[in-house]
Amino acid sequence: MDEVKDLKQKTINGMLWSFIDLFSGRGIQFLTTVILARLLLPEDFGLIAIALLLVAVSNALIDGGFSQALIRQRF
């Protein structure tokens, strides 16, 4: 019975850290986009958006789930 409680606690902790990881990054990304939209001309913002798209695609290919594996290994 103690193992079940331990597994449940580890699952909850893992989900919490995954949630924090995902939404803190998205929140910072959103705020950065809003600030850049206010500071830059539309043409410049479009160039930045294209560059950020390329960075996001390459990050998705490079990361390949490393943060999830790290959380799984931690708990």
Automatic annotation (TrEMBL):
Major localization class: membrane
A GO cellular component annotation in the UniProt record: plasma membrane
Subcellular location: Cell membrane
Tree of life domain: Bacteria
Keyword Ribonucleoprotein attributed: no
Pfam families cross-referenced by the UniProt entry: Polysacc_synt_3
InterPro entries (UniProt xref): Poly_Biosynth_Transport
Keyword vocabulary terms for this entry: Cell membrane, Membrane, Transmembrane, Transmembrane helix
Topology in membrane: Multi-pass membrane protein
Transmembrane segments: 12-39, 45-66
PANTHER family: LIPOPOLYSACCHARIDE BIOSYNTHESIS PROTEIN WZXC, PST FAMILY PREDICTED COLANIC ACID TRANSPORTER
Family affiliation: Belongs to the polysaccharide synthase family.
Name of the protein in its database record: Oligosaccharide flippase family protein
